[in-house]
Each structure stands twice: as structure tokens, then as C-alpha cells.
């Protein structure tokens, strides 16, 4: 698939969910190239952000907003079998995407976004929330956490792994959505994780957005899984 947007640097993706007053500045400071997912275009235009592209089925964005975006930057994908978040991730080629505006408001939208993180395992993405960030765990990851930081692991598939630096290590545990989850673990200091396969979401404090983004952007970080065969 030829990407709509290709970048050698991280990209900020804006959705139509809740966007806090500092969210856009935080994300754009790390990833200044900006793309909107459908209704996220309204958020971007209102904030005066220059959009590289808007991607989606355009059922959540006003025509008046679209007319403010050059036609060559509007990418209408009318199919209804996937969310706008999914449409964006599969058409963006970048080391990592920082997603803003994909939490809050509707719980079903948040759950769908978590699902997309696991479906698009080959497209590293970090969702920025009010107090935390969430992302799909790569095969190996080092986190510069501090003692007392909450590190939550929530599986959306059966996954095993190893850890160092967690109060309750995950070595030898089978984690699965219908069996055992790893939420509300505590860091003892820096944490290292390895995963046996895809399917694990990791939730860490918001202040670590830059470090997590950098970890995905490093080519030697083994940060992605092969694309799922669907």
C-alpha cells in the first residue's frame, strides 16, 4: 500500500475526542508534522495548525472546515469497515505516530482506538491521554521510569513476557484478556520489558511521552512487529 503521508520523523495525529489545552503543544513539540483524522480537522483548524493531510470518511467534519484545507490534502476514504483512526494509521508511514484526541467523550471510541493499536502492530503509535500514554508493546522496550511510577500492562491477546524493574515481575505469567491482566504494577526504577508476541498494551505516566516516542523512533530498537495477515 502506497502511504498517503510519508515522513522520516514522528507525526502528530489529531482526533475528534478530548484535547487538553497542553496536548497539542506537547505532541507537536515532538512531532511537528500534523495529520487529522476526520473530525480532528476541526480541532486543528480552530487551533491554527497547518495540516499536512486530513484522512477519513468525512462524516464528522463540517464542510466549512474542509474548505479551509487545500483539496490536495483531503483524503476521503468512504468505507465504513474501519475507524478513521485505523484509516490514518494504515496510510501513514512514519517511525511513530503521536495520537491526540482519541481519549475521552465516548468509551466505545476509546476501546476502538485500543483495538486499532493491536491490529496495526506494524505502525507504532502512542496515544496521549490526560494523565497517561498508552501504546502497543514492541518486542523489547526500556522505560526510564522512576520508583513509584504506575506501569500497567493490559493484554488484548494471550501474551507472555519478561520484566526487570517491576514490583511484580511478569516472568512466567500467562496474560490474556479473559485470564489475567497486569494493571497497576509499580516501577522500582527503570523498567525493561520483552514480549513473546503482539497483543500487549502498555500504559505509563504522561510525562514519558518523549522517551517512549524516542524509543520507537530508534531504528535499532526492534520497535515493531510484522504486519498482521488479515
Classify the secondary structure makeup into a structural class: alpha/beta
Q: Determine and state the CATH class of the largest domain.
A: Alpha Beta
The portion of residues forming beta strands comes to 25-35%
Number of strands: 14
Mean residue pLDDT = 93
Determine the N-to-C terminus distance.
14 Å
CATH topology of the largest domain: Rossmann fold
Rg, rounded, reads: 17 Å
Shape: globular
CATH architecture of the largest domain: 3-Layer(aba) Sandwich
Helix and strand topology:
Elements: E1 5-6, E2 11-14, H1 23-30, E3 33-37, H2 40-46, E4 53-56, H3 63-66, E5 74-76, H4 84-91, E6 92-93, E7 97-100, H5 107-119, E8 125-128, E9 132-136, E10 140-143, E11 150-155, E12 161-166, E13 182-195, E14 200-205, H6 209-217
Parallel strand pairs: 1-6, 2-3, 2-7, 3-4, 4-5, 7-8
Antiparallel strand pairs: 8-9, 9-14, 10-13, 11-13, 11-14, 12-13
Amino acid at each position: 500500500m502506497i502511504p498517503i503521508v510519508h515522513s522520516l520523523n514522528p507525526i502528530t495525529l489529531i482526533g475528534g475526542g478530548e484535547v487538553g489545552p497542553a496536548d497539542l503543544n506537547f505532541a507537536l513539540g515532538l512531532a511537528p508534522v500534523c495529520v487529522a483524522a476526520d473530525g480532528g480537522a476541526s480541532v486543528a483548524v480552530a487551533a491554527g495548525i497547518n495540516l499536512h493531510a486530513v484522512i477519513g470518511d468525512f462524516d464528522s467534519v463540517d464542510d466549512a472546515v474542509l474548505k479551509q484545507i487545500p483539496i490536495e490534502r483531503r483524503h476521503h476514504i468512504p468505507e465504513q469497515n474501519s475507524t478513521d483512526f485505523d484509516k490514518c494509521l494504515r496510510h501513514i508511514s512514519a517511525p511513530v505516530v503521536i495520537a491526540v484526541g482519541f481519549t475521552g467523550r465516548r468509551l466505545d471510541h476509546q476501546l476502538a482506538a485500543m483495538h486499532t493499536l493491536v491490529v496495526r502492530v506494524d505502525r507504532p503509535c502512542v496515544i496521549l491521554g490526560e494523565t497517561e500514554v498508552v501504546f502497543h508493546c514492541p518486542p523489547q522496550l526500556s522505560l526510564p521510569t522512576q520508583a513509584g511510577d504506575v506501569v500497567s500492562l493490559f493484554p488484548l491477546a494471550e501474551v507472555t513476557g519478561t520484566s526487570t524493574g517491576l514490583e511484580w515481575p511478569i516472568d512466567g505469567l500467562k496474560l490474556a484478556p479473559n485470564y489475567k491482566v497486569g494493571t497497576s504494577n509499580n516501577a522500582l526504577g527503570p523498567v525493561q520489558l520483552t514480549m513473546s508476541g503482539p497483543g500487549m498494551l502498555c500504559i505509563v505516566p504522561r510525562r514519558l511521552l518523549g522517551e517512549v516516542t524516542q524509543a520507537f523512533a530508534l531504528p535499532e530498537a526492534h520497535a515493531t512487529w510484522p504486519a498482521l495477515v488479515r
